[in-house]
Amino acid sequence: MSIIVRAVLIGLVITFVGSIPRSALFLANLRLFPQFPWAVPVTALYLLFFWRYLNGSGPPDTNSKERKHNLRANPVSVRVWFWSLVTGGLAIVALVLGLRLANRFMALPPQGIPDLGQASKVTIVGLLLIAAPAAAIIEESAFRGYMQGPIERHFGLLRAILITGTMFALAHLDFTPILWPYYVAVAAIYCIITHIAESILPAIVLHTAGNLYSNFDLYLHGQAEWQAPALQAASIWVTGLDTSFWFSVATLVGVTGFVALAYSALRNAAAR
Questions:
Q1: Which of 82-86, 131-135, 177-181 has the lowest mean pLDDT?
Q2: CA 90 from chain center: how many Å?
Q3: What is the extent of the structural domain holding 144?
Q4: Cys bridge to 29: 39, 59, 155, 173, which one at CB 3.0-4.6 A?
Q5: What is the pLDDT of residues 132-159, one digit of tens each?
Q6: First-residue to last-residue Cα distance in the chain
Q7: Alpha-carbon torsion (138, 141, 142, 148), positive or negative
Q8: Cβ atoms 15, 142 nearer than 8 A
């Protein structure tokens, strides 16, 4: 149990150490000189030092190898890269389809745009662009690197998924209990790919892509489509199990089948 507690605490500390300065820089940019995205290069520089330290650079030298081992930013082959991205991409599509289907049964919590003040479009787009890889690097380092690794080695992958998924949910301010399965599902995608590839690098790329989609979808439409409350006319409690519902179910089942095949191909690629 002490292994789990230690892994969770270290992962959460890494999350906050990475996220708080980034958030402070973004907030400062929206209030000071909001016409220019000056926080973008500053955030990128901070992330560089953040990443290098977690990967073993800097003092103390006594735990340099341990930090590098815990981060698990190991290089992967071209085949593993390819199948990791294909598998993760399909899994994310399946997850979004599942959320939209769930939205036919219940109203999922809405997600609105934060106050952007007088920021220019250039600043907003710049912050959205840097926010995607920033969150991916910070969260994958914390949850799939430092947190998942020790738990997975001592207690197995399933427990690592449940624990990191729960902590991943609690670390997000928009968390409500109804979204717990969503965060565990996200954790499962990234945890399994990290486990098979033995590296967090593919998960970082996938996480970045997912963040870019959700960030710009939220910005362009004013709310995240898959988290918006279900329209009364779209609820199955009003329409019944209509053709649209069964089409969504069939699509989800089909994509899930491709996900299973892709995971198998990824395992074969990693075994070579």
A1: 177-181
A2: 15
A3: 2-271
A4: 39
A5: 999 999 999 999 999 999 999 999 999 9
A6: 35
A7: positive
A8: yes
Tallying the residues shown for the chain, one arrives at 272
- Of 184, 48, 204, nearest in space to 136 by CA: 204
**Cβ–Cβ under 8 Å, residues 228 and 110:** yes
Pick from 83, 95, 47: nearest CA to 210 = 95
Tell me the whole-structure pTM to 2 decimals. Answer: 0.90
Q: How many domains does the chain have?
A: 1
Task: Report the phi/psi class of residue 33: left, alpha or beta, with left for phi > 0 and alpha for psi in -120 to 50.
Answer: left
Residue 269 near residue 193 (C-beta atoms within 8 A):
no
φ, ψ dihedrals at 4, nearest 5°:
-65, -50
The Cα–Cα gap between 73 and 94 comes to 26
* Residues β-bridged to residue 112: 223
Phi/psi at 93 (5° precision) = -60, -45
- Residue 179 · residue 168 · CB < 8 Å: no
Residue with tokens 């990967």: 55
What the block records as the tokens of 206 is 């996938």
